[in-house]
Amino acid sequence: MWVRWSLIFSLVVILVSPNETLFASGIDRKDDDWSYLGTSKEDIKLFYSPERIVHSGMLVQAWFKAIYPESDQKITHSIALHEFNCRKGLYRLLQGTLYFRDGGAGSSNQLSAWEHPLPGSLAEMEFKQVCGKTSPRRKTVR
User: Fold this and answer.
1) Which among 137, 135, 115, 119 is positioned nearest to 127, based on CA atoms?
2) Degrees, nearest 5: CA angle 122-123-127
3) All domains of the chain, ordered by start, with CATH?
4) pTM of this structure
5) Residue 20: partners with Cβ closer than 8 Å, 6 or more residues away
6) I want to staple 54 with a disulfide (CB 3.0 to 4.6 A). Which of 59, 61, 84, 90 is the partner?
């Protein structure tokens, strides 16, 4: 009887989720809530979590995940919480973790200084996604 119920359960799981990978783990899973943002010149793939975006007054907090290419000898991926001041065109790191190829990880909970995102950088990609525009820094000509 137990074997019969196990077989029925397995069949139901397969029929209900034919496109899902069962019991999978890893950073490239399709069933999590990370949305692809883009790829950097260094071939780093950037994702963000739209469901975890938090608005608080003028500030917006968002989680980002970066998947590093196989050519990176040390880092596999990173996950970071950034805070954005969209009106002033600034961002900073609130919390971050680097995951290394040897299985180790390094975390930081130190607030970074407010910075303007560099043009063409991952930070600019993040800023555009969260704030819906590029940093409002303008060139002043005198």
Assistant:
1) 135
2) 120
3) 33-131 (2.40.128.710)
4) 0.72
5) 31
6) 61
